[in-house]
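If you are new to this repository, start here. Below is one unmodified record pulled from the training split, so you can see the exact layout before writing a loader.
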Amino acid sequence: MSEEITVSYTFDADVLIRAFWWHHRRKYVRRILVYVTAFLFMLGSFYSGLNSGHGVPTQVYVWGGVGVLVFFFVLWQLIQLINRFFWRRRINAMPLCGKQVTWTVTESALKCVMSGADATMDWSVILESVATPEGILIYPQKNLFYWLPRTAFTTESEYIHFRELVASKTKHSKLG
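And here is the target side for that same chain:
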């Protein structure tokens, strides 16, 4: 790819809330392991209760297990709702909210221009990238990311070229 790709979008909560969601989705494996561990612990308790000889009806353990699963599911949904509220609030409080962001992508570097600032990053400083169905997360640090939404590209072919370039220049993975 010898030409430049220009990506432009407005920095606002509607665009970036999905980036936060995809960024945190990467950590779901750990969360699922916690839930599976809790479920296995509950199953172990159920089994030991059946074998204890106290005569506790099986339904008590079954309904208790269902109750714990429902509790964890509702808790998880509540945490997601609270996170979205705080992410939106944090994004809307940023001075750049509502301003235009323009990325210029070349074979050698990424350049970001926005109101009052610009930055050029060589591909070697990018730790990794993650392609999602809605765009690409670019990580110059472990928990710092830049979001290039798919809708910000002028054509689908530009997006595909960019995704291939990012995949060739960085440690790359896919979600979704």
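Two things worth knowing about this chain: The first strand starts at residue 5 and ends at 10. The chain has four helices and eight strands.
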